[in-house]
Amino acid sequence: MPNGRRELYRSANGDAWYLCRGTGGRVCVEHVPNAPSGGRVSQVDIATFLARGAQGPEHQALLDTIAGLLEEGAPENSTHTQVA
User: Fold this and answer.
1) What number is the average pLDDT over the span 61-74?
2) Hey, which of 9, 33, 36, 68 would disulfide with 58, CB 3.0 to 4.6 Å?
3) Please, which residues have CB within 8 angstroms of residue 11's CB and are 6 or more apart in sequence?
4) 73 in any annotated domain
5) Buried b / exposed e across 2-27, counting CB within 10 Å, b at 16+?
6) How many domains does the chain have?
7) What is the DSSP pairing of strand 16-21 with strand 5-10?
8) Any domain includes 81
């Protein structure tokens, strides 16, 4: 995320969701609602975002983004412990 955030999804009504670093430096999802619905920006950590139903296209976009990052080239012989 060179510019600090990456757009995940933009709905037909103008709402947008971004993968970004929050104020504390942790990775989170930022929701920017359209102006008619108040336009108040909110941030939530990834686990909470996915736990909130995870059925919308914005949730699928986050999962697709994460999968794409994995496909881009983590070495197969990683030194990280695998979680089952």
Assistant:
1) 82
2) 9
3) 57, 58
4) no
5) eeeeeebbbeeeeebbbbbeeeeeee
6) 1
7) antiparallel
8) no
Residues 66 and 46 sit within 8 Å (Cβ to Cβ): no
Reported as a single tens digit per residue, the pLDDT across 14-67 is 999 999 998 888 899 999 999 898 889 999 999 898 888 768 899 999 999 888
The confidence band for 75, taking pLDDT boundaries of 50, 70 and 90, is: low
How many Å apart are CA 20 and CA 16, to the nearest integer?
Answer: 12
The predicted-structure confidence for 20-34, as pLDDT tens digits, reads as follows 998 888 899 999 999
- Evaluate whether residue 82 is within a structural domain: no
Give me the helices (H) in 12-56, please: 46-51
In a domain, 51, yes or no: yes
Beta-ladder partners of 42: 31
The structure's pTM equals 0.74
What's the token pair of residue 28? 């989170």
